[in-house]
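Homework-ish question, so no full write-ups if that breaks the rules, but can someone show me the predicted structure for this set?
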Amino acid sequence: MDGRKSASSGKASGATKRKEPPSGTGNARGGQGNNGQAKDGRPPNRAPKRVKFHDARNIRTQPSDAALEDGRLDLQRFLNAREFEIKALESSMRKCKAVNATRVFQQVPRAMRRRTASHNVKRIPKRLRERARKEQIDDKTPTIEARRRRPRTTRARIRAETAKKLGILAARKKKKMLDNTAEGAAGTSVQPTVETRAPRPKIRRNTLNQAPKIKSKFRKRQINKTWLPTHVWHAKRATMTEPSHPLWRFAIPLTPTQKCYRPIHRASGQKGAVAWDMSYMSTIGLYGSDEGAERVLRAIGLTQESIWGGRGRNWRAGARKWTGFLSKQRKEGRRDIGPATIIWNPEEEMDLTHPKKSQRQIFIRTHPSCFLELFQELLKLVKMQTPQLHVEDLRFEIGSIEITGPGSTETLLGIIQPYYDKPEAKENQARIFKSLDGVTNPASLPKDALLAFSAMDPRLGHPSKSNKSSTGSVSSTLLDTLTNWPIGENPKPYGLFSRDSRYAASKLPSLKSINRRKGTGLPGNGLRVTAVDPPIPVILFASRPATDGQAQGTWTLLAPWKCILPVWYSLMHYPLSSGGNPHLGGLEEQRQIAFEQGAPWFPVDFPGTEAGASWELEQREKRLRDWGRRPKGKRVEWRSLDLGAGRKGEIGDGLACDFEYLFRLPKDDAQKETGNCDASVPDPDAMQIDGIEYHEPREVSHSSLLMVQHMEKASFNALFSSANLGKAPAYSVITVQLTFVTRGIANVCARIYRLPTRAPTVIPPSTDTEVPATPLPSPGLPSDLRDHWLANLPLKSIHPNVGSSRGRQGRRQQQQATRQFLPGTNLAERKSLLARSLVTTSLPYPAPSATQKDIGGHPFCPSEEDLIGFVTSGSFSLSEGKGTAIGSISAERAFGALKGAGAKEGKLCVVRNAGESVGWLARWEAI
Amino acid sequence: MVRLKDRYLLVSIVYTDLLASQQAKKGNNPPVSDLLLYNQPTTGELKPQILLKAIRNQVASLFGDCGSGAVDRSLQVKYLSPATSTFILRISRSHYRLVWAALSFMDRLPTRDGRPCIFRVVRVSGTIRKVEEEAVRRAKLLILAAKDEAAGNKNAGTALDALFRGGSGGSSKDPARNLTMLSDQDDDDDDDEGSAPGDGEASYDD
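A: Not a homework solution, just the prediction itself:
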């Protein structure tokens, strides 16, 4: 503050000050030191800014007389001169800092910086606006608003005129309405004779639900997509999907506009929290008898006996959730659909006098990319049951928020307050939730734990205060709660399952009325619940990371669609006890966190499902588009890629995870194949929203890719461990995590090879360069390629009985023997040895090309026969500190590798990025 | 982005003709302490231009055309205080050693009948701010040392101590002051290899 003041006053006072002599000496003048330009004040026609800078950078000095008393040295004068110097230097430092003071736009926090429209003072905080305005006037920044500019084109003029006319019309209409209401209030108002229920949004049975009715202002922008409840908030802070290319029929935030790769890594693991609006996840309601529901669920893949026996009792009673992969039955076998979470609604207390057949309610929460597939499958199954069950599409009824990180529990505790009128009426589950204070990892809750209760409108307690106690150590009562989980035997039915309570919750009082109520109370006090505040039914559950370990779990909050926005606002403003607010995450961040935990992310890492296949197809198109947009000289020319040993050209399509190539499936055109796809191909007419027909852009039509099917880790392991090594189903892929043994980073579409098998005949060790006797798969490849690759293993991980004689050490010794002299040799001997080596070593002429023996010191990539799969996501992992990747490999070929070399060495593979000739050694692990 | 990278040198002029000046002053005046004699004010004839010219000449004679060409454009006097015999030079980062060397070889003031003196580089830094801070610190130390001397009337050895070790020798009783000297660290981390200037004292003593 004082710096700024001195800067503004420096121009005037500094100039005058310099003219009068400094204190203590009679004739000292400032500005004498350097160039003496500003000696006489400001030059009239020089820019004032320059003068200001010059003034600030000038350090005042004294002439030598100041330190002398009549030409003699004097202690007092000596001290005075020093003091003057100190003052001059200090003032110079101060002035320089003030002058260097940056523009207002550089002072706002990073999150608030805008490059676009940074000339708009309204975009910066109010406290800085005045200064910004002054700066703009100073440097003549044009400050015209585009909106106010005189229209220049005819079209713009017509538009402006129309807008003006419309404005007049609207004003007239409004006035008319006001008059009418005034009249109505004055006259006798007619009492309604019949009380009617307010209309609830329709949810039809066994059909798709309609998107919520939108304000007409925004309707045109949501013709072929739906906005999330927090869309407007997100659109300002995140990169959204392109308007013309929505993702899964939603406008989804992809990544925050602010750079956040590292902050998200930190917030998700060490300190802080990351939150997502996951309202795009689809919920399907399944209603009907207990047995019928069980049959349907078994038919969609919940076939483990354990969950239907005693261990699943809690789940069926509604106290736990189930998460796993759903699948459907096809002629050729079961086919995976996608991951889903299934929650049962607890049964009501049985009325003993009227024993009725119990009707159960089940929520199936799944990913939007596989929603339609699952819905249609369910529809089919439901109609087959007697008595019939029914399904409801609750996509726009139930929204959700996910939050992860050490601060996630604390945040939820801060914003979600249980709703109760009287303390006695407090729900048991709400009490358990409140006792979770101190949990730093949602994964530490019991597996699949679930809490359902009624919450208060978070706006009543907004702004929520930071909960300081949650940083303390874990208390013993908390440990008790976590181990016992005292939820009680028979929970009451959950409010979220009831359509009426969902509807009641969506009628929240307006923000205006809440603010008015707040205004009457003391500042800083939250509001009490009154009759106008409906309870918000919520379901909270904690999920553990897909890979077991110490990684952070995730909280999921299910709430009515309309309640997501108020919750979101409070969430984003919650002050974490570790400092800061929860981070905003987009799709990329979700993917990043899953990747860092080593977990596959649906749908990207599951090309064996329909959703994954359509994602892959879409990405292929996108990559092709991007590739085509690059100039010819700067894009990878796939055909001229040199893989060494005389192999030219990329294997398969370089821009695709080319599973068709891997399984030798025919590649087909989109047009040709639309007809004979299997029945699950979505019918475009089925997805009508608001009566506007919408053509699904990502119609899965490539039947070849659809033949690839996903195989779960469990069944893969079971097949492998079975004594006779059963044969894997055709075209099945397993998802694997790849860890590089030494170096290397894989990108999407990188090729995964298994290590080549050794040539069957025994080759003497000295015939490295000789042509091998037996024909090899690829004539140029060395016969001992496998050993070359195994030599890349770090010493400690080399298998004791494999390739030890020809390991890295052996080779190195061999090389050194020719280059180094033995320790005892004298000079003469050395000379003769050197001469001999110079004479005898003959360099081949012409020099062999770099890729004839190996690729720049790296072993060759194995041949095409050894291709086993592709990387679906990969990069440098911040949690591992090196490159990792997630890919899909052919189960059959993986078996082959495992059979040949055992469980340890068989998991070694070579990963080569598409378009590159160097591969890196990695190890795969089924996940 | 291309950035011009500079070094700022804080130089103090130390007069070495103690005897001559002592005798000149002897006449009818009370004896002056050595500290004051070393840190005499510089004559007003030493203008920035003259100083620059002298340094350039010295660089040219030591390093030839190449050296003078390297130094010529970027050398600038940012501050020259005759009363305290201190000045600050600015020079491009890659060539500041030439200037430093030239200063070490200059043994007289570059004025007419220049008095014998040494140009002591006390601080090299990447920002003028740090150099200014150092100048302030040294001035404060000198004030304290001068006051000490006036009070206790120490011998010439402490005066030199005060000069070269910033007063740590003369006032070893005061640990705080010693501490300030020990914390005299170099502040520019972005230095290219091998040219870390270290603190002025250490280099000078070598």
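Now go work out the reasoning yourself. Hint: The interface with chain A takes residues 25, 29, 32-33, 36-37, 39-44, 48, 77-84, 86, 128-129, 132-133, 135-136, 139-140, 142-143, 146-147, 150 of chain B (CB under 8 Å).
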